[in-house]
């Protein structure tokens, strides 16, 4: 009897935490997926159906919303602008952050800790707090209403966190490997370029993935810096559906669904690299 009760207790100690874990994960999944499902349903309805029956499935589906958007020139212009900004920001962040992280992780010089702390201060000042002085600086540089202004601002505010990620990964690489490279005649830059970067591919993939998703979905910076419709990025596109007497929510839903497709595809493809890259530098050795 005692053996049975003991095994019964072990069963509940193992099963109950897992049941609670699955229950919480199910609730979180529902919380995340329900708005997405409602968005897709709404994008396949007419404007009247969207207001009268927003939560019911579209029967039959109304595809004209997607056709109107895909056949409009402004959508493809905004897509091109978003691609230019996202790719440029990602390339700039990878180059700057990898070089800075290498310096902070592998080289010794006076004031290194102070300089690194200065870079990490950027984590304390999100763009929502600094947007006014940023706008004034960009205006003084005559870079308002230009994609270059967006690229500079987004790149600057992506540096701190990504330098921290790459520095931790670079610091986890054994220093014996660096010493062996120096013995073979490598300079510090040769070690960085030929040895460290190939080893850091998971971390670089994680940084690139996170940077692309954040840049693609950024609304505030283009909203503040861009006035010309021809320079809008996709997050600004919903403003074209705002009329004098209301907003066509069905068209907005279709536009948002189409705008999210590239980011979702990229995240699905890069998800394995994001997880491995963010955890690669957690343990040394």
Automatic annotation (TrEMBL):
This is ABC transporter permease protein. It is found in: Cell membrane. It is a multi-pass membrane protein. Its main location: membrane. The chain crosses the membrane at residues 20-41, 83-104, 116-138, 203-226, 249-270. InterPro entries: MetI-like, MetI-like_sf. GO terms for biological process: transmembrane transport. Belongs to the binding-protein-dependent transport system permease family. Residues 79-270 form the ABC transmembrane type-1 domain. One of its GO terms (cellular component) is plasma membrane. Pfam families: BPD_transp_1. Keywords: Cell membrane, Membrane, Transmembrane, Transmembrane helix, Transport.
